[in-house]
């Protein structure tokens, strides 16, 4: 199984690519460790859904401008359209990156209900299968290969769960990633749907309107260039769908709740490690930029 790790003084990250039968559903399994006595803070860019399990002396997060709050040991984070500010101190965590097809398969609720939301799933009806699978990893001892094998077999057991329009989810998702024209009408044409059908479909399956999803794609294409190339300026990072720098700054504020210069001035102890380790393991710096059909063979 392909993997990649990246270590900084206060954080260790490792990404694992799931086997082919799970890649339509799961982007990566990833492990995060912050040493005892150390605390790191960062801003997570918009992404697809994730499951996370672990324990930490400090574990707080807040969406957008919300004040970070303590979070529980097993959480589901839905697809996001704004930054997530988080603090982690002295702990170990496993994460499971869920592509839209995986959210439908393994979670099985409307993505709209979890858009820009994170919460515990322990004790919640309908999530018992996920809690049972993830709970043993809350006390992970660091046997990463063993934990990944456990997660792999656990999610394989859920592959028989029925999903409506599963191939359509993959087709629209692929069209969204491949699509460079910021137009809902042209995306609908590429996906083989009417505009109205696409709007309803995206709201339920992806959690957001097609227009917002396209904006998120071009924003993250730009952010990925800036994060992976230490020599790149914001001007050099801009996607060609931006009219000018002012257009980019407006969208940066929309997605990250700050200006590009404010973001660049912050330390990024986790994201800096994550984009490099994920690029090495998966080929894409960010989960949202991954083509869901690229690994299918």
Write the layout of secondary structure elements.
Blueprint: E1 3-8, E2 11-16, E3 26-44, E4 49-63, E5 69-70, E6 74-77, E7 84-98, H1 100-107, H2 111-114, E8 118-120, H3 128-134, H4 144-156, H5 166-178, H6 184-191, H7 195-205, H8 210-228, H9 234-237, H10 245-256, H11 260-265, H12 271-282
Antiparallel strand pairs: 1-2, 2-3, 3-7, 4-5, 4-6, 4-7, 6-8
Summed up, what is this model?
The protein has 297 residues and is α+β, with helices and mostly antiparallel strands. The protein is 39% helix and 24% strand.
Molecular structure report:
The protein is α+β, with helices and mostly antiparallel strands and about 300 residues long. The chain folds into two domains: about 5-155, Jelly Rolls (Sandwich); about 165-290, Orthogonal Bundle (Arc Repressor Mutant, subunit A), CATH 1.10.10. It is built from twelve helices and eight strands. It has helices at about 100-105, 110-115, 130-135, 145-155, 165-180, 185-190, 195-205, 210-230, 235, 245-255, 260-265, 270-280; strands at about 5-10, 10-15, 25-45, 50-65, 70, 75, 85-100, 120. Strands 1, 2, 3, 4, 5, 6, 7 and 8 form an eight-stranded antiparallel beta sheet that branches. Strand 1 (about 5-10) and strand 2 (about 10-15) form a beta hairpin. Helix 5 crosses helix 6 (about 185-190). The two termini are about 15 Å apart. The model has no long low-confidence stretch (mean pLDDT about 90).
């Amino acid at each position: 199984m392909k993997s990649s790790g990246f270590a900084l003084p206060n954080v260790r990250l490792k990404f694992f690519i799931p086997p082919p039968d799970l890649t339509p559903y799961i982007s990566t399994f990833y492990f995060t460790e912050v040493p005892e006595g150390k605390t790191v803070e960062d801003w997570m860019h918009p992404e697809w859904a994730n499951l996370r399990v672990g324990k930490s002396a400090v574990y707080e997060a807040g969406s957008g401008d919300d004040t970070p709050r303590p979070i529980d040991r097993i959480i589901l984070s839905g697809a996001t359209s704004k930054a997530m500010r988080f603090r982690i101190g002295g702990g170990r965590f496993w994460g499971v990156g869920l592509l839209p097809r995986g959210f439908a398969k393994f979670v099985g609720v409307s993505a709209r209900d979890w858009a820009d939301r994170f919460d515990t799933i322990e004790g919640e009806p309908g999530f018992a299968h996920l809690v049972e699978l993830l709970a043993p990893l809350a006390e992970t001892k660091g046997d990463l290969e063993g934990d990944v094998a456990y997660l792999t077999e656990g999610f394989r057991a859920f592959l028989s769960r029925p999903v409506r329009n599963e191939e359509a989810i993959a087709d629209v998702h692929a069209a969204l990633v491949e699509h460079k024209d910021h137009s809902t009408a042209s995306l609908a044409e590429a996906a083989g749907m009417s505009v109205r059908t696409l709007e309803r479909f995206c709201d339920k399956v992806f959690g957001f309107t097609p227009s917002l999803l396209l904006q998120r794609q071009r924003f993250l294409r730009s952010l990925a260039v800036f994060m992976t190339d230490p020599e790149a300026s914001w001007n050099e990072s801009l996607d060609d769908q931006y009219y000018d720098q002012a257009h980019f700054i407006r969208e940066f504020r929309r997605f990250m709740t700050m200006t590009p210069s404010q973001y660049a001035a912050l330390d990024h102890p986790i994201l800096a490690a994550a984009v490099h380790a994920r690029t090495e393991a998966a080929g894409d710096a960010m989960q949202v930029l991954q083509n869901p059909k690229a690994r299918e063979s």
